[in-house]
């Protein structure tokens, strides 16, 4: 049967409405502020409806407007426009929980007290549609539009009302989820503050008591490491989720192990997994397990890490690297303690204390929409920040001796570190932190010529430091990443000859002059025979004792300049 013009127009409008609902649902699912999403909804509505102005108002428990968003308006302008709408009209929508349609507001008693001169030119008729925004059975706001109307029959108010009601339902669901997340966030923040206060109150009386030099494999007694260990001892008593934050190589796995061994779960399994080392499909099978025949190669049932760690602790390293889809799956098991094996339908229960670790800036990732905010608040109940090695230089000798002891045990040798060797190590920044220090000690011990490691045995004294070369190329090509520091090398015992030429920008950097805080950052005066302390004082006097300016003269960063001044005990003159 042939389709008439009216039927064709209705089908086209229905198809457009369906497409509009689809686009609006995608927009509301985006990880952004609620106000931003609502403004986007109104922009999309203007593409699907003949409307002059659109307004979404969310009300508090007293009925007052809490959030008001207008199409193309600022929040203040939108609120003023909402206040000009008749209270009786908005009240009817809220009280009756039904849509309100006014074909011509000039003849409706609800709008009898409205000054229409603020709406537009005289002689123009306006229509008004308002629908309630509901969460469950309660009205939490209104969605209203108005349009220029001349009484022409092409406006189908019934279809517009149905379309706006569906949009309002989607908005209501988004509001409900946002409020649930906000409540959960407030609860987790309050719990975090409570635990932090408990840690502070408990740690304060313990501070005079000296901590052991080594605790659960963690070597060091600097103030920075003592502070973290104090918190670990307190946090370990609970079953709370912990997020270990810190640069790569700071020993996050060791601290996770220490948390487990100090906890009531110490006799249960400690299971660990690096999330960045596996693709998403393999990661799901590793964490949740799989049933026999779930995929090609699944010849037998396999338990996942959550199941293996039941009753104990699960350590997830590099958690900031998991995909958005897998974040949703991980959130469910953290919230509910339930999961299904890959290829299975049986819901499994697990009791696991989760410890996560990352070197990423998760707050920035959440702001960019790369990491779910709800998962962030779930894993960051108690964040512990691990200090980089450059913030605990007094621990370097102890760590170096420990790494050399392990090397001696493994290789049946009796190598020892001289004071000169320790001086070289203490003068380095070690961007790779403890891991890089261990590699440096092992490499030097492997290539040592005698029973004692001296300053000349280290690669940095022979222009062979791989980290230094990496910094050289990085400094010439790109801006170094945040938190990366160049390697300052302690001066050699013998001064460099005064006639030795200094490297220039045009010449290749074949050598790294003694006393330069970083490769590529050595001033021309480094080869003039002056000591490093004399050059620092000269630069500070030239800069009028302004540290940042002196750093530029020396070709250093302000942080490096401050380190050099402290190393040589140079007091800062103040004028």
UniProtKB/TrEMBL annotation:
<keyword id="KW-0010">Activator</keyword>
<dbReference type="Pfam" id="PF25601">
    <property type="entry name" value="AAA_lid_14"/>
</dbReference>
<keyword id="KW-0547">Nucleotide-binding</keyword>
<dbReference type="InterPro" id="IPR002197">
    <property type="entry name" value="HTH_Fis"/>
</dbReference>
<dbReference type="InterPro" id="IPR003593">
    <property type="entry name" value="AAA+_ATPase"/>
</dbReference>
<dbReference type="InterPro" id="IPR029016">
    <property type="entry name" value="GAF-like_dom_sf"/>
</dbReference>
<comment type="function">
    <text>Required for activation of most nif operons, which are directly involved in nitrogen fixation.</text>
</comment>
<dbReference type="GO" id="GO:0009399">
    <property type="term" value="P:nitrogen fixation"/>
</dbReference>
<keyword id="KW-0804">Transcription</keyword>
<keyword id="KW-0238">DNA-binding</keyword>
<protein>
    <recommendedName>
        <fullName>Nif-specific regulatory protein</fullName>
    </recommendedName>
</protein>
<dbReference type="InterPro" id="IPR003018">
    <property type="entry name" value="GAF"/>
</dbReference>
<keyword id="KW-0067">ATP-binding</keyword>
<dbReference type="InterPro" id="IPR025943">
    <property type="entry name" value="Sigma_54_int_dom_ATP-bd_2"/>
</dbReference>
<dbReference type="GO" id="GO:0000160">
    <property type="term" value="P:phosphorelay signal transduction system"/>
</dbReference>
<keyword id="KW-0902">Two-component regulatory system</keyword>
<dbReference type="Pfam" id="PF02954">
    <property type="entry name" value="HTH_8"/>
</dbReference>
<dbReference type="InterPro" id="IPR027417">
    <property type="entry name" value="P-loop_NTPase"/>
</dbReference>
<feature type="domain" description="Sigma-54 factor interaction">
    <location>
        <begin position="218"/>
        <end position="446"/>
    </location>
</feature>
<dbReference type="GO" id="GO:0043565">
    <property type="term" value="F:sequence-specific DNA binding"/>
</dbReference>
<dbReference type="InterPro" id="IPR010113">
    <property type="entry name" value="Nif-specific_regulatory_prot"/>
</dbReference>
<dbReference type="InterPro" id="IPR025944">
    <property type="entry name" value="Sigma_54_int_dom_CS"/>
</dbReference>
<feature type="compositionally biased region" description="Low complexity">
    <location>
        <begin position="491"/>
        <end position="510"/>
    </location>
</feature>
<dbReference type="InterPro" id="IPR025662">
    <property type="entry name" value="Sigma_54_int_dom_ATP-bd_1"/>
</dbReference>
<keyword id="KW-0805">Transcription regulation</keyword>
<feature type="region of interest" description="Disordered">
    <location>
        <begin position="491"/>
        <end position="530"/>
    </location>
</feature>
<dbReference type="InterPro" id="IPR058031">
    <property type="entry name" value="AAA_lid_NorR"/>
</dbReference>
<dbReference type="GO" id="GO:0003700">
    <property type="term" value="F:DNA-binding transcription factor activity"/>
</dbReference>
<dbReference type="Pfam" id="PF01590">
    <property type="entry name" value="GAF"/>
</dbReference>
<comment type="subunit">
    <text>Interacts with sigma-54.</text>
</comment>
<keyword id="KW-0535">Nitrogen fixation</keyword>
<dbReference type="InterPro" id="IPR002078">
    <property type="entry name" value="Sigma_54_int"/>
</dbReference>
<dbReference type="Pfam" id="PF00158">
    <property type="entry name" value="Sigma54_activat"/>
</dbReference>
<dbReference type="GO" id="GO:0005524">
    <property type="term" value="F:ATP binding"/>
</dbReference>
